[in-house]
Amino acid sequence: MTKFPLLSLLVFTPCIGAAVLAITRRASASVARVLTLLFSLSTLGLGLVAAASFDPTRTGMQWIEQHTWIEALNVHYRLGLDGLSLVLVLLTGVVSPTALLASWRIKSSARAFGALFLLLQSAAIGVFLALDFFHWFVFWELSLIPAFFLIKLWGGPAATRAAYQFVIYTIGGSAFMLLGFAAIFAATGTLDFIRLAQEAADGALAESLARAGGWWPTAVFLGVLLGLAVKVPLFPFHTWLPSTYAEAPTGVSMFLTGVMSKMGVYGFLRILWPLFPAQLHAVSGVLLWLALGGVVLGAFAAMRQTDLKRMIAYSSINHLSYCLLALFAVSAATGGPKPAAHAAAAALSGTILQMFNHGISAAALFACVGMIESRCDGRRGLHDFGGLRTVAPVFAGLTGIAMFSSLGLPGLNGFVGEFLIFRGVFGLAPWAAAIATLGLLATAVFLLTFWQRVFHGPARGATTAGFAALSGVEYATLVPLVALMFILGIWPQLLARLINPLITTWAGHLNLP
Amino acid sequence: MLMSVTAAHVWLIPALPLLAAGIGALTPRVGRRLAAGAAIVALAVSFLLSCGALVTALADPAAHLVHNFAWFDLGDSAVRLGWLLDPLTAFMCVMVTFVGLLIFIFSTGYMHEDANFTRFFCFLSLFAAAMLGLIVANSLLLLFICWELVGLASYLLIGFWFHKPEAAAAGKKAFITTRIGDLGLLLGMVWLYDATGSLLFYDGGNGVLETNALGALTAQFTIGGLAVSTAIGLLIFCGAVGKSGQFPLHVWLPDAMEGPTPVSALIHAATMVAAGVFLVARVYPLMTADLPLTGVPLHALTVVAAIGAITALLGAVIAVGQSDIKRILAFSTVSQLGYMMLALGVGSWVAAIFHLLTHAFFKALLFLGAGSVIHAAHHEQDIRRLGGLRRPLRVTFATFAIGMMALAGVPFLFSGFWSKEAILHAAHGWTVSPLPLYVALAGVVLTAFYMTRLVAETFFGTPRSETAEHAHESPATMTVPLVVLAIFAILLGFLGTPAWPWLQARLEGRTEIHGHSLADGAGLMGLSIVLVALGIGAGWALYGRRPRARAAATDPIEGRAPKLFHALRQRLGFDELYAATVGRISDGLAALADWLDRSVWDGTIRFLARLGVFAGVVNREADEDVINGGFDAGSEGLRRGANAYSHAQTGDAHGYLRVVAIGFVMLVLVVMLGGGR
Lengths: 513, 677
What we know:
The complex is a heterodimer.
Chain A lengths: L5 H18 L5 H25 L8 E9 L4 E7 L1 H20 L7 H20 L3 H10 L1 H11 L4 H30 L4 H9 L2 H7 L5 H16 L8 H8 L2 H26 L1 H28 L3 H26 L7 H35 L12 H4 L1 H14 L6 H16 L1 H26 L16 H19 L2 H16 L5
Antiparallel strand pairs in A: 1-2
Chain B lengths: L11 H15 L5 H28 L5 E10 L2 E9 L1 H24 L6 H20 L3 H19 L6 H32 L14 H9 L8 H16 L8 H4 L5 H10 L4 H8 L1 H4 L12 H21 L4 H21 L3 H28 L17 H15 L6 H14 L6 H25 L6 H4 L6 H16 L10 H6 L14 H23 L11 H5 L1 H8 L4 H49 L1 H23 L6 H24 L1
Antiparallel strand pairs in B: 1-2
Helix pairs in contact in B: 1-2, 1-4, 2-3, 2-4, 3-4, 3-10, 3-15, 3-20, 4-5, 5-6, 6-8, 8-11, 8-13, 10-15, 11-15, 13-14, 13-18, 14-15, 14-17, 14-18, 15-16, 15-17, 15-20, 16-18, 16-20, 17-18, 18-22, 25-26, 25-27, 26-27
């Protein structure tokens, strides 16, 4: 059973799908759509298989695949799965098909769209499963290419500019990360995350790097940090995000916020924190303030947006900053005198749950805005509508649930992660938790303003022209996401059991080398 | 014969209305009977279960019966929740299910015409479920979850007529304002969790309200020399301030009257707004833990008493200047909740709960009576345009009058008199300051005064509008609940008289009852009776003897003190003050965040990009070879790098890195030059 290459299948099935779409030149648009969806669903199916066979009591990697790739450079093809990867694979499995369903009615060349989308999906899974920097980075950068074309070719009026900004900004960050890893490779001769983490834990990594010069460990750390900070994004490296999310077509916005933003946070958890615990600890005071900047200013900036997609985009900055806030708080407390394992476990659990929950709720909100946009001639301004709830009560209800999930209403999924993050951060850096509550308040303000302006009051603006009832495909987009909001809100144990042993181990080893 | 309901079963009490809410949510608009029937039946069964729970709880009133369970794993332990059954829970459950049931029945008449009838009952059931969940929770976390859900139900129901912009705005205002308080509660909760490792109230000695945890919390000190228990208590109290409409977060409650009147009766008078009082009573061991400490700057209860006293007076004063029948009652609710907080603050949580229970009945009665008036007068809510309704609306008038006398504290027969007496006596016995007592006594006059004004303007004199002239009594579905509530507005007081304080004894966990003669403290009681008479007399003198002739006539107080009356009508300008301060600051912060994004952060990036483009242009103008040269150098570097790798650790990485860096910058520039422009 261990010989079965489950993880390779997970990574490459969408890729195969892309190839199939590329060669079936005469397939009609509807065939292409169905093929895309089926290949995209492979992630969910295989992810569930992985979840079913996953042994949560083991904290190491499972389903490991290892093959020598480039012997001269000591580069290996290594894949592995732990609780963190599994949660993100499942998230990709849920968000990707719904994003495709939300793109069901794209106007031109469904085949090319599907192929690019599958490539993007494949790259994301690759990032979540790779254990060797070499092909991790290949997937990391590979994801940009389909994303670039998806935004540029199927996006809104200013898509070209947004796509360039997105790609150049991200590559600019990644370049420094690549340089950092080149230095690590030169110093240690390996790119294996697991081995590097072990070396970092006993201090050998910093020692090897320091042989080239005392400031090297810091420089390499900053390079990797920059690459990840742009990707998440960490405040103030976030300015590419609102225009990119706003200009991308709905389905791609869903994937970008649902999955790609998690790649950055994943990088923080898988690479930066384990490899550079001391360096991260040293700057975590500053980083905490930056994360707070994202939490508070991100939410307040959202209050000023009149484009609904930009508003949701800013709320993504706010939500992802909670994840980073928790991680930085843990890092700041690492090696401290006070044993804070309980708070750290809460903060880290909260981070991972928040990643999943934000993926679900932000994707749903983008889908909802997309449905409004597609019915109202592309209008999606805060002031373009009024009284939508009168003409579309069911749609209003589903949007409302997604919105309340996003603002952390208990009973829905968003609350669990946020509660754990606040509980953890309070135990580690109480002042940061107190300031971060401003973000919670501002989130409630702008989401309820959105709801009030668009759905309440008398029918006016674009609403007066009517609003077609949701189609079957649109129900299929929203209902699974909304159902998950309820399920995970009431029964968080479903995810918690997958990550808890891992979290417990992490929280138990908060020492500095 | 009542079934034996134990702590392991109490979850059924909130679960049944939740099920009804689910049914209501999935019922199409035409299924009116199904939605309303499910809601009423579910709540009726919950009521019976609550009675069973009360029997169980009274069998051993000192016990806190619990049933705890793990919600999800966290680290080497788990996040645990639980159910609790004690007299406080049981009395609250009985009250909420019983008053709720009457209001549900009333709603079938009141909302009969509404197109979204099924949705209304869905939301009402959701509210009942959350409210009951809040009461039976044995965990601050579970309580918080339900606390937020009652907030959601309140939001949905205030904005039930969402096509009205005022209703939509009022719902949002309520949600945001209470959320400000809830953030304090959230912080208090996570602090408590961090400090004690648990959020269960009672857990066989390990709960946060039990001796071990309380000892630990009072042994540590925090900012300003406060005991940790004081700080946590005050943060938790923030939540109560928001939810119970206490100063300075009281501004949302009057606006919440935009909701349908049964909602105002159930949520914004009888139950949800009292949740803050319940919360403080629930965590009372925590709130009082700091009392034995001397040398601390502040005790948590002192703040509770101060806020309660301010609110009690403020609400009563503003109520005098209102002319919307529901707004008057809303400010009266604010004031009465202030009384309850005051009682908690001066150390008598049982008096607070006694008043909570009696208030729930007579205030629900008053609101439903107001609803009956509004229904009869075709949605006319302005008392200046009503008048003379005592003749056409006989049942409504009679029951409303009972409610008014209970609220005003007319002696001996009415429940409000006894519960208010209990609060006055508690305030009298408070050694820290006599101010709460004075404030409470001033409030007694004002309450009697504004209620007399309300009754005189609405029911006496002559009809002052077309609709008031043609008013006719409401159907039996509406009047029967009024009669039942009126009966309880009288009877309930006899459960807690000083001579036989049965309710207080059971709440405190005692099986024997220590009554004392009415002659004890007769002076205070006599004073309060005189004050009530004064208030009613003044009210009748101004509004009853010479009734208003026309709707546009000036108010007698307005005639004597126009500025004062105007200020009261404007609710003393709190809304304007908040808009000018909190609103401005928030807008300013939003504008700042947006400006930082557009100008500073994005500006820096654009500047860097321009710099890159500029450098590229200069290079191209000068010599194409620079780029090509750079590329060659890059290739060379790659070759050398490969060599370096093959002889691992030659220390040659510096040069390689430098070249790779140059290569990357060039690459980015090339991409920018080629594509960006």
